[in-house]
Amino acid sequence: MFRRTSKAESQPVALDPKGPGAKGRPTPTRKESEAARRERARAGMDKKAAQKLLRQRRNESNAQVRAGMRAGDERYLPARDQGPVKRFVRDFVDARVSIAEFLLPLLIVIMAFQYSGNAALVRFSATLWATTLVVVALDTAWMLLRIKRALRAEFPDESLKGTTFYTLMRVLQLRWLRTPKPRVRIGGAPR
Q1: Which of 30, 39, 54, 166 is most buried, most CB within 10 Å of its CB?
Q2: 171: Cβ–Cβ under 8 A, 6 or more apart, which residues?
Q3: What is the reported pLDDT for 136?
C-alpha cells in the first residue's frame, strides 16, 4: 500500500504542448512581464493623470445619474422605483397633501414642548402626540385603501407586490425631499 514503486512503472507521460487548452508559447519570466508592463505604461499616460481622468469621468457620470434620478428618468432610477406601477404610486401620493408629510416637523415641535419645563405645554404636547398618531394612522390607512383600489383598476394584470411599503415610504417623506421629484401638482391627477 505505501511502498515505493519501481522505476520501470514510473515513466513520465509526455504532455502535448499544443493539446487542448495549451497557450502554444512559454510563460514569460517575471522580468519580461514587468518590462512589458512598463512599456505599456510609458506608451499611455502616467498613473496620476490616468486616475485624475478616471475620477473626472466618474464624477460626470454620477452627476448625470443624480440629475436623471431627480427628473424621474426611468433609465437612472434604482430598481425599486422603476416601472409603471411605481410611477403611478408616486404620482398618486404626490397629487394630494397627506398629514404624514408633516409628521417629522410636528414631532420636533412636540419634543420642544416636552423639554420646555412648563407643565401645561408638556400636557399639551402629550395630547398633541397621541392625536397626531391617531390622525396619521387613519389618514394613511385611508390612502392605502384608495391606492390599492386605484392600482387594481389601473393595472389588473400587474404584480402589486411591494406597493404598500413603497406608498408608506413615499407618504412619510417631506414633499421637497422626495426622490424622484414629484411630477404632479397637489390636486392634480396621476399620469
Answers
A1: 166
A2: 93, 98, 100, 101, 140, 143
A3: 92
